[in-house]
Amino acid sequence: MEAADIAFVVICAAMVMLMTPGLAFFYGGMIRVKSALNMLMMCFIATGISSVLWVLYGFTIAFGDSVNGEGNGIIGNFDYLGFSGMLDVEGSDALLTFAVFQLMFAVLTPALISGALADRVKFSSWALFIALWVSIVYFPVAHWVWGENGWIGDLEIDGHSVIDFAGGTAVHINAGIAALAAVLVIGKRIGFKKDPMRPHNLPMVLLGAALLWFGWFGFNAGSELAANGTTALMALNTMVATGTAVLGWLIYERIRHGAYTTLGAASGAIAGLVAITPSGANVNPMGALLIGLVAGAVCAWAVSLKYKLGYDDSLDVVGVHLVGGIIGTLMVGFLAINGDGGFAQFALQAIAAGAVLVYSFVVTWVLAKIIDVTIGFRASEEDETAGLDLAYHAETGYDFSQAGSGAVPGSTVTASADVAAGQKKVDA
Protein backbone atom coordinates (compact mmCIF):
# COMPACT_ATOMS: atom_id res chain seq x y z
CA MET A 1 0.00 0.00 0.00
CA GLU A 2 1.03 3.56 -0.68
CA ALA A 3 0.83 6.00 2.23
CA ALA A 4 -2.33 7.54 0.80
CA ASP A 5 -3.98 4.12 0.57
CA ILE A 6 -3.08 3.37 4.18
CA ALA A 7 -4.61 6.67 5.31
CA PHE A 8 -7.74 5.98 3.27
CA VAL A 9 -8.22 2.47 4.68
CA VAL A 10 -7.66 3.61 8.27
CA ILE A 11 -10.35 6.27 7.79
CA CYS A 12 -12.65 3.62 6.32
CA ALA A 13 -11.94 1.39 9.34
CA ALA A 14 -13.05 4.21 11.63
CA MET A 15 -16.24 4.58 9.56
CA VAL A 16 -16.95 0.86 9.88
CA MET A 17 -16.34 1.08 13.64
CA LEU A 18 -19.12 3.71 13.77
CA MET A 19 -21.51 1.18 12.26
CA THR A 20 -21.69 -0.86 15.47
CA PRO A 21 -23.00 2.00 17.64
CA GLY A 22 -25.15 2.96 14.65
CA LEU A 23 -26.56 -0.56 14.69
CA ALA A 24 -27.11 -0.21 18.44
CA PHE A 25 -29.23 2.90 17.87
CA PHE A 26 -31.07 1.27 14.97
CA TYR A 27 -31.93 -1.81 17.02
CA GLY A 28 -32.33 0.12 20.27
CA GLY A 29 -35.05 2.34 18.87
CA MET A 30 -36.94 -0.66 17.48
CA ILE A 31 -37.14 -2.45 20.83
CA ARG A 32 -39.61 -1.82 23.65
CA VAL A 33 -38.55 0.82 26.17
CA LYS A 34 -38.01 -1.58 29.07
CA SER A 35 -35.12 -3.35 27.29
CA ALA A 36 -33.67 -0.51 25.21
CA LEU A 37 -30.38 -0.26 27.13
CA ASN A 38 -29.94 -4.01 27.02
CA MET A 39 -30.22 -3.88 23.24
CA LEU A 40 -27.56 -1.17 23.06
CA MET A 41 -25.29 -3.22 25.31
CA MET A 42 -25.76 -6.37 23.24
CA CYS A 43 -24.19 -4.48 20.34
CA PHE A 44 -21.51 -2.68 22.32
CA ILE A 45 -20.19 -5.79 24.07
CA ALA A 46 -19.30 -7.24 20.67
CA THR A 47 -16.71 -4.47 20.31
CA GLY A 48 -14.80 -5.58 23.38
CA ILE A 49 -15.02 -9.33 22.87
CA SER A 50 -14.17 -9.39 19.17
CA SER A 51 -11.28 -6.93 19.58
CA VAL A 52 -9.58 -9.12 22.20
CA LEU A 53 -10.11 -12.38 20.31
CA TRP A 54 -8.95 -10.78 17.04
CA VAL A 55 -5.53 -10.07 18.51
CA LEU A 56 -5.23 -13.40 20.35
CA TYR A 57 -6.12 -15.68 17.45
CA GLY A 58 -8.90 -14.32 15.24
CA PHE A 59 -6.77 -12.55 12.64
CA THR A 60 -4.45 -15.49 12.13
CA ILE A 61 -7.35 -17.95 11.74
CA ALA A 62 -9.08 -15.67 9.24
CA PHE A 63 -6.11 -14.36 7.28
CA GLY A 64 -3.09 -16.54 7.94
CA ASP A 65 -2.09 -18.81 5.07
CA SER A 66 -4.11 -22.01 5.03
CA VAL A 67 -2.57 -24.79 7.12
CA ASN A 68 -0.18 -27.31 5.51
CA GLY A 69 1.36 -24.88 3.06
CA GLU A 70 -0.56 -26.06 0.00
CA GLY A 71 -3.75 -24.79 1.61
CA ASN A 72 -6.59 -26.83 3.02
CA GLY A 73 -8.81 -23.80 2.55
CA ILE A 74 -10.54 -24.16 5.93
CA ILE A 75 -8.60 -22.06 8.46
CA GLY A 76 -5.44 -20.00 8.42
CA ASN A 77 -2.23 -21.00 10.12
CA PHE A 78 -1.20 -19.66 13.52
CA ASP A 79 1.80 -17.55 12.54
CA TYR A 80 0.18 -14.39 13.90
CA LEU A 81 -1.08 -15.61 17.30
CA GLY A 82 -1.14 -12.57 19.56
CA PHE A 83 -0.05 -10.55 16.50
CA SER A 84 3.43 -12.01 17.08
CA GLY A 85 5.95 -11.00 14.47
CA MET A 86 3.56 -8.70 12.62
CA LEU A 87 5.60 -5.61 13.36
CA ASP A 88 8.75 -7.20 11.99
CA VAL A 89 7.61 -8.59 8.63
CA GLU A 90 8.13 -6.79 5.35
CA GLY A 91 5.11 -4.64 4.58
CA SER A 92 3.97 -4.58 8.22
CA ASP A 93 2.34 -1.18 7.71
CA ALA A 94 -0.02 -2.61 5.10
CA LEU A 95 -0.61 -5.78 7.14
CA LEU A 96 -1.57 -3.83 10.26
CA THR A 97 -3.82 -1.55 8.21
CA PHE A 98 -5.61 -4.57 6.78
CA ALA A 99 -5.86 -6.13 10.25
CA VAL A 100 -7.53 -3.10 11.82
CA PHE A 101 -9.92 -2.75 8.88
CA GLN A 102 -10.99 -6.39 9.04
CA LEU A 103 -11.31 -6.21 12.83
CA MET A 104 -14.28 -3.88 12.37
CA PHE A 105 -16.02 -6.56 10.30
CA ALA A 106 -15.42 -9.07 13.08
CA VAL A 107 -16.99 -6.64 15.55
CA LEU A 108 -20.06 -5.84 13.48
CA THR A 109 -20.99 -9.32 12.25
CA PRO A 110 -21.95 -10.92 15.61
CA ALA A 111 -23.64 -7.68 16.65
CA LEU A 112 -26.02 -8.11 13.70
CA ILE A 113 -27.36 -11.31 15.28
CA SER A 114 -28.37 -9.50 18.47
CA GLY A 115 -31.46 -7.96 16.90
CA ALA A 116 -33.05 -11.36 16.37
CA LEU A 117 -32.64 -12.30 20.05
CA ALA A 118 -33.68 -8.96 21.51
CA ASP A 119 -35.82 -8.72 24.63
CA ARG A 120 -35.32 -12.25 25.99
CA VAL A 121 -31.73 -13.50 26.51
CA LYS A 122 -29.31 -13.43 29.43
CA PHE A 123 -26.60 -10.86 28.91
CA SER A 124 -23.81 -13.12 30.18
CA SER A 125 -24.96 -15.94 27.92
CA TRP A 126 -25.03 -13.56 24.97
CA ALA A 127 -21.43 -12.52 25.68
CA LEU A 128 -20.34 -16.16 25.78
CA PHE A 129 -22.23 -16.84 22.56
CA ILE A 130 -20.38 -14.03 20.78
CA ALA A 131 -17.00 -15.37 21.89
CA LEU A 132 -17.81 -18.88 20.69
CA TRP A 133 -19.54 -17.81 17.49
CA VAL A 134 -16.82 -15.56 16.14
CA SER A 135 -14.20 -18.20 17.00
CA ILE A 136 -15.92 -21.19 15.42
CA VAL A 137 -18.07 -19.59 12.73
CA TYR A 138 -16.99 -16.10 11.68
CA PHE A 139 -13.20 -16.46 11.68
CA PRO A 140 -13.19 -19.68 9.59
CA VAL A 141 -15.86 -18.41 7.16
CA ALA A 142 -13.91 -15.17 6.66
CA HIS A 143 -10.93 -17.35 5.73
CA TRP A 144 -13.01 -19.38 3.27
CA VAL A 145 -14.09 -16.25 1.43
CA TRP A 146 -11.17 -13.80 1.71
CA GLY A 147 -8.21 -15.65 3.21
CA GLU A 148 -5.12 -16.86 1.43
CA ASN A 149 -6.08 -20.19 -0.19
CA GLY A 150 -9.61 -20.02 1.26
CA TRP A 151 -11.66 -22.68 -0.49
CA ILE A 152 -14.56 -20.40 -1.50
CA GLY A 153 -12.18 -17.74 -2.77
CA ASP A 154 -10.31 -20.37 -4.78
CA LEU A 155 -13.41 -21.89 -6.42
CA GLU A 156 -13.44 -21.59 -10.22
CA ILE A 157 -15.82 -22.58 -13.00
CA ASP A 158 -14.86 -21.80 -16.60
CA GLY A 159 -12.45 -19.12 -15.46
CA HIS A 160 -14.97 -17.48 -13.12
CA SER A 161 -14.45 -17.12 -9.38
CA VAL A 162 -16.81 -16.26 -6.53
CA ILE A 163 -17.71 -12.57 -6.18
CA ASP A 164 -18.08 -11.32 -2.61
CA PHE A 165 -16.45 -7.93 -2.55
CA ALA A 166 -17.33 -6.80 0.98
CA GLY A 167 -19.22 -9.54 2.79
CA GLY A 168 -22.49 -10.83 1.36
CA THR A 169 -21.64 -14.39 2.40
CA ALA A 170 -19.10 -13.92 5.20
CA VAL A 171 -21.06 -11.18 6.98
CA HIS A 172 -24.75 -10.94 6.08
CA ILE A 173 -25.73 -14.47 5.04
CA ASN A 174 -23.54 -15.74 7.86
CA ALA A 175 -25.14 -13.54 10.53
CA GLY A 176 -28.66 -13.83 9.10
CA ILE A 177 -28.82 -17.62 9.09
CA ALA A 178 -27.11 -17.72 12.50
CA ALA A 179 -29.86 -15.47 13.83
CA LEU A 180 -32.48 -17.91 12.57
CA ALA A 181 -30.73 -20.88 14.18
CA ALA A 182 -30.43 -19.08 17.51
CA VAL A 183 -34.08 -17.98 17.69
CA LEU A 184 -35.21 -21.53 16.93
CA VAL A 185 -33.29 -22.68 20.02
CA ILE A 186 -34.34 -19.84 22.30
CA GLY A 187 -37.99 -19.60 21.33
CA LYS A 188 -40.49 -16.78 21.08
CA ARG A 189 -40.87 -13.72 23.29
CA ILE A 190 -43.65 -13.79 25.84
CA GLY A 191 -46.69 -12.36 24.08
CA PHE A 192 -45.38 -12.83 20.52
CA LYS A 193 -48.24 -12.29 18.03
CA LYS A 194 -50.50 -11.29 20.94
CA ASP A 195 -49.06 -8.17 22.56
CA PRO A 196 -48.08 -5.05 20.61
CA MET A 197 -44.29 -4.85 20.35
CA ARG A 198 -43.83 -1.59 18.52
CA PRO A 199 -40.59 0.45 18.30
CA HIS A 200 -40.34 2.82 21.24
CA ASN A 201 -38.24 5.52 19.51
CA LEU A 202 -38.45 5.88 15.73
CA PRO A 203 -36.20 8.98 15.58
CA MET A 204 -33.49 6.80 17.16
CA VAL A 205 -34.12 4.15 14.48
CA LEU A 206 -33.63 6.72 11.72
CA LEU A 207 -30.49 8.07 13.40
CA GLY A 208 -29.08 4.55 13.58
CA ALA A 209 -29.94 3.88 9.94
CA ALA A 210 -28.23 7.14 8.91
CA LEU A 211 -25.07 6.23 10.85
CA LEU A 212 -25.08 2.79 9.25
CA TRP A 213 -25.54 4.30 5.79
CA PHE A 214 -22.60 6.65 6.38
CA GLY A 215 -20.36 3.94 7.79
CA TRP A 216 -21.26 1.57 4.98
CA PHE A 217 -19.28 3.68 2.51
CA GLY A 218 -16.20 2.71 4.51
CA PHE A 219 -17.40 -0.89 4.73
CA ASN A 220 -17.93 -1.22 0.98
CA ALA A 221 -15.55 1.21 -0.71
CA GLY A 222 -12.79 0.53 1.80
CA SER A 223 -12.79 -3.15 0.88
CA GLU A 224 -10.81 -2.28 -2.24
CA LEU A 225 -7.95 -1.39 0.17
CA ALA A 226 -6.96 1.44 -2.14
CA ALA A 227 -8.31 4.69 -3.51
CA ASN A 228 -9.02 4.03 -7.20
CA GLY A 229 -11.75 3.66 -9.78
CA THR A 230 -13.18 0.49 -8.24
CA THR A 231 -13.50 2.38 -4.95
CA ALA A 232 -15.47 5.11 -6.68
CA LEU A 233 -17.74 2.62 -8.46
CA MET A 234 -18.47 0.82 -5.19
CA ALA A 235 -19.25 4.08 -3.42
CA LEU A 236 -21.59 5.20 -6.20
CA ASN A 237 -23.39 1.86 -6.34
CA THR A 238 -23.73 1.83 -2.55
CA MET A 239 -25.66 5.09 -2.75
CA VAL A 240 -27.73 4.11 -5.77
CA ALA A 241 -28.78 0.71 -4.47
CA THR A 242 -29.63 2.01 -1.00
CA GLY A 243 -31.75 4.88 -2.23
CA THR A 244 -33.61 2.59 -4.61
CA ALA A 245 -34.19 0.01 -1.88
CA VAL A 246 -35.85 2.68 0.27
CA LEU A 247 -38.27 3.31 -2.59
CA GLY A 248 -38.82 -0.40 -3.19
CA TRP A 249 -39.67 -1.02 0.47
CA LEU A 250 -42.02 1.98 0.66
CA ILE A 251 -43.82 1.04 -2.56
CA TYR A 252 -44.41 -2.48 -1.26
CA GLU A 253 -45.51 -1.09 2.10
CA ARG A 254 -47.95 1.32 0.50
CA ILE A 255 -49.50 -1.40 -1.68
CA ARG A 256 -49.61 -3.98 1.10
CA HIS A 257 -50.38 -1.86 4.17
CA GLY A 258 -51.53 1.50 2.84
CA ALA A 259 -48.85 3.67 4.45
CA TYR A 260 -45.27 4.90 4.03
CA THR A 261 -43.58 4.37 7.40
CA THR A 262 -40.33 5.73 8.76
CA LEU A 263 -39.48 2.24 10.01
CA GLY A 264 -39.98 0.97 6.47
CA ALA A 265 -37.70 3.65 5.04
CA ALA A 266 -34.97 2.84 7.54
CA SER A 267 -35.32 -0.91 7.01
CA GLY A 268 -35.32 -0.47 3.24
CA ALA A 269 -32.06 1.45 3.43
CA ILE A 270 -30.43 -1.37 5.38
CA ALA A 271 -31.77 -3.95 2.92
CA GLY A 272 -30.21 -2.05 0.02
CA LEU A 273 -26.90 -1.68 1.81
CA VAL A 274 -26.82 -5.39 2.55
CA ALA A 275 -27.62 -6.42 -1.01
CA ILE A 276 -25.04 -4.19 -2.67
CA THR A 277 -22.27 -5.27 -0.28
CA PRO A 278 -21.14 -8.39 -2.20
CA SER A 279 -21.90 -7.04 -5.65
CA GLY A 280 -21.30 -3.29 -5.86
CA ALA A 281 -17.80 -3.41 -7.33
CA ASN A 282 -18.90 -5.77 -10.11
CA VAL A 283 -22.07 -4.17 -11.47
CA ASN A 284 -22.80 -0.90 -13.22
CA PRO A 285 -25.13 1.72 -11.66
CA MET A 286 -28.15 0.33 -13.51
CA GLY A 287 -27.39 -3.09 -12.06
CA ALA A 288 -27.10 -1.52 -8.61
CA LEU A 289 -30.47 0.16 -9.11
CA LEU A 290 -32.07 -3.18 -9.96
CA ILE A 291 -30.45 -4.95 -7.01
CA GLY A 292 -31.64 -2.22 -4.67
CA LEU A 293 -35.20 -2.27 -5.98
CA VAL A 294 -35.48 -6.05 -5.67
CA ALA A 295 -33.89 -6.05 -2.21
CA GLY A 296 -36.22 -3.36 -0.90
CA ALA A 297 -39.41 -5.03 -2.09
CA VAL A 298 -38.45 -8.65 -1.37
CA CYS A 299 -37.05 -7.92 2.10
CA ALA A 300 -40.21 -5.97 2.94
CA TRP A 301 -42.17 -9.10 2.08
CA ALA A 302 -39.71 -11.42 3.83
CA VAL A 303 -40.03 -9.78 7.26
CA SER A 304 -43.65 -10.95 7.41
CA LEU A 305 -42.60 -14.61 7.13
CA LYS A 306 -41.89 -14.82 10.86
CA TYR A 307 -45.61 -14.49 11.56
CA LYS A 308 -46.51 -17.14 8.99
CA LEU A 309 -43.73 -19.59 9.88
CA GLY A 310 -43.78 -18.98 13.61
CA TYR A 311 -40.19 -17.99 14.42
CA ASP A 312 -39.67 -14.84 16.51
CA ASP A 313 -36.97 -12.77 14.82
CA SER A 314 -37.44 -9.70 17.01
CA LEU A 315 -35.95 -7.02 14.75
CA ASP A 316 -36.05 -8.70 11.32
CA VAL A 317 -32.43 -9.79 11.03
CA VAL A 318 -33.45 -12.80 8.94
CA GLY A 319 -35.73 -10.85 6.63
CA VAL A 320 -33.19 -8.07 5.99
CA HIS A 321 -29.68 -9.50 6.37
CA LEU A 322 -30.19 -13.12 5.31
CA VAL A 323 -32.59 -12.38 2.46
CA GLY A 324 -30.79 -9.21 1.40
CA GLY A 325 -27.43 -10.99 1.46
CA ILE A 326 -28.77 -13.82 -0.69
CA ILE A 327 -30.28 -11.36 -3.18
CA GLY A 328 -27.02 -9.45 -3.63
CA THR A 329 -24.90 -12.60 -3.77
CA LEU A 330 -27.04 -14.30 -6.40
CA MET A 331 -28.03 -11.33 -8.58
CA VAL A 332 -24.42 -10.41 -9.27
CA GLY A 333 -24.17 -13.80 -10.94
CA PHE A 334 -26.11 -12.43 -13.89
CA LEU A 335 -25.44 -8.69 -13.58
CA ALA A 336 -21.63 -8.74 -13.27
CA ILE A 337 -19.87 -6.52 -15.78
CA ASN A 338 -16.74 -7.22 -17.87
CA GLY A 339 -18.08 -10.56 -19.07
CA ASP A 340 -18.26 -12.10 -15.60
CA GLY A 341 -22.02 -12.69 -15.57
CA GLY A 342 -23.75 -15.89 -16.65
CA PHE A 343 -24.82 -19.32 -15.44
CA ALA A 344 -21.31 -20.35 -14.41
CA GLN A 345 -20.99 -17.26 -12.23
CA PHE A 346 -24.47 -17.77 -10.80
CA ALA A 347 -23.62 -21.36 -9.92
CA LEU A 348 -20.50 -20.24 -8.08
CA GLN A 349 -22.48 -17.66 -6.15
CA ALA A 350 -25.09 -20.25 -5.20
CA ILE A 351 -22.42 -22.71 -4.01
CA ALA A 352 -20.78 -20.07 -1.84
CA ALA A 353 -24.08 -18.92 -0.35
CA GLY A 354 -25.25 -22.49 0.25
CA ALA A 355 -22.04 -23.55 1.97
CA VAL A 356 -22.15 -20.64 4.39
CA LEU A 357 -25.87 -21.18 5.02
CA VAL A 358 -25.43 -24.81 6.00
CA TYR A 359 -22.27 -24.42 8.07
CA SER A 360 -23.40 -21.34 9.97
CA PHE A 361 -26.88 -22.69 10.69
CA VAL A 362 -25.72 -26.07 11.99
CA VAL A 363 -22.83 -24.80 14.12
CA THR A 364 -24.84 -21.86 15.51
CA TRP A 365 -27.73 -24.14 16.46
CA VAL A 366 -25.33 -26.46 18.29
CA LEU A 367 -23.60 -23.58 20.10
CA ALA A 368 -26.90 -22.01 21.16
CA LYS A 369 -28.21 -25.38 22.33
CA ILE A 370 -25.11 -26.10 24.40
CA ILE A 371 -25.35 -22.71 26.10
CA ASP A 372 -29.07 -23.16 26.67
CA VAL A 373 -28.78 -26.58 28.35
CA THR A 374 -25.74 -25.63 30.47
CA ILE A 375 -25.91 -22.08 31.80
CA GLY A 376 -29.21 -21.16 30.17
CA PHE A 377 -29.62 -18.75 27.26
CA ARG A 378 -33.11 -17.47 27.95
CA ALA A 379 -33.84 -14.77 30.52
CA SER A 380 -36.27 -15.68 33.29
CA GLU A 381 -39.94 -15.01 32.68
CA GLU A 382 -39.92 -12.42 35.46
CA ASP A 383 -36.96 -10.51 34.01
CA GLU A 384 -38.34 -10.65 30.48
CA THR A 385 -41.70 -9.31 31.60
CA ALA A 386 -40.27 -6.55 33.80
CA GLY A 387 -37.57 -5.58 31.30
CA LEU A 388 -33.92 -6.55 30.88
CA ASP A 389 -32.51 -3.08 31.57
CA LEU A 390 -33.09 -3.26 35.30
CA ALA A 391 -32.44 -6.99 35.52
CA TYR A 392 -28.95 -6.96 33.96
CA HIS A 393 -27.76 -3.35 33.97
CA ALA A 394 -29.48 -1.73 37.00
CA GLU A 395 -30.34 1.20 34.75
CA THR A 396 -33.17 2.46 32.60
CA GLY A 397 -33.06 4.25 29.29
CA TYR A 398 -35.53 6.93 30.34
CA ASP A 399 -36.01 8.36 33.83
CA PHE A 400 -39.74 8.96 34.12
CA SER A 401 -39.41 9.80 37.81
CA GLN A 402 -38.40 13.31 36.74
CA ALA A 403 -42.05 13.83 35.83
CA GLY A 404 -42.80 13.73 39.55
CA SER A 405 -44.51 10.37 39.55
CA GLY A 406 -41.74 8.16 40.86
CA ALA A 407 -42.51 5.66 38.08
CA VAL A 408 -39.61 3.52 36.88
CA PRO A 409 -39.74 1.77 33.48
CA GLY A 410 -40.17 -1.94 33.95
CA SER A 411 -41.12 -1.57 37.63
CA THR A 412 -44.34 -2.99 39.05
CA VAL A 413 -44.66 -0.05 41.48
CA THR A 414 -45.78 3.42 40.39
CA ALA A 415 -46.95 6.43 42.32
CA SER A 416 -49.86 7.27 40.07
CA ALA A 417 -52.44 5.19 38.28
CA ASP A 418 -52.37 7.65 35.39
CA VAL A 419 -48.59 7.41 34.98
CA ALA A 420 -48.79 3.64 35.32
CA ALA A 421 -51.26 3.51 32.47
CA GLY A 422 -49.08 5.78 30.38
CA GLN A 423 -46.00 3.68 31.13
CA LYS A 424 -47.88 0.54 30.12
CA LYS A 425 -48.54 2.12 26.74
CA VAL A 426 -44.89 3.10 26.33
CA ASP A 427 -43.71 -0.38 27.27
CA ALA A 428 -46.12 -1.89 24.77
UniProtKB/TrEMBL annotation:
Pfam families: Ammonium_transp. The keyword Transport applies. Keywords: Ammonia transport, Membrane, Transmembrane, Transmembrane helix, Transport. Residues 7-398 form the Ammonium transporter AmtB-like domain. GO terms for molecular function: ammonium channel activity. SUPFAM superfamilies: Ammonium transporter (SSF111352). InterPro entries: Ammonium/urea_transptr, Ammonium_transpt, Ammonium_transpt_CS, NH4_transpt_AmtB-like_dom. The keyword Membrane applies. One of its GO terms (cellular component) is plasma membrane. Its main location: membrane. It is found in: Cell membrane; Membrane. It is a multi-pass membrane protein. The chain crosses the membrane at residues 6-27, 39-63, 94-113, 125-146, 166-187, 199-219, 231-252, 259-280, 286-305, 317-337, 343-368. Belongs to the ammonia transporter channel (TC 1.A.11.2) family. This is Ammonium transporter. It comes from Streptomyces triticirhizae.
